[in-house]
Amino acid sequence: MREIALSPTFWNGVEDCIKASEPLLAVLRMVYGGEKPAMPEVFACLDLAKKKISDSFSCNPVILKKVIDIIELHWAEQMEQKLYEAALFLNPNKYFDIKENDCAYSSRLRVMFNDVIEKMIIDYDDLISKVSDLADQYESAESCFGKKLPMLQRKKKSPSDWWTAYGGSAGELQKFAWRITGLYCSASGYNRNWTTFESVSAQAASTKHKRVMF
Hints:
The protein is mainly α. It contains twelve helices and no strands. About 75% of the residues lie in helices and about 0% in strands.
């Protein structure tokens, strides 16, 4: 134990664990917050977490690849990934910054939104077309979305509140924006892992105590 506690290799490993996990814990805390719907924020927060991890391990590409591969593997197992991206598209707080800095990424978000709308609206071609036209106005900041107040309030209101305040002239799109950005998320799937870890720790502690007693 003394050799481990004084080993630079051990503490370097601990530091790597912290650098890899801390940004992801920030995402989980945001999801668990419960104060506001997390759906519009998850994808952006995950991207930020991966960027922070990439910066932390920029000098160690081997570890970086392992960590990112693990993140991508678990994210690939999530249901309704497109819904997270559609929610990000409808989040004016984040979307317009993305559009300004990364056109390819913003285009991908629009594609995911289109896919989600097609899944939500079945056998109503006129409604799909109307929602798509209104989404064009939102994306280009035109019509009611291009006025001064909605643009000033993008970062000051939650997505749901913003759509309530400024989406009234685009009622068909507003309804879907409410439904998508108003969704809450859960990290409950990971509770099973923590419960397992706690159970193992408790059993180990119990066994150790019994050995000491005997």
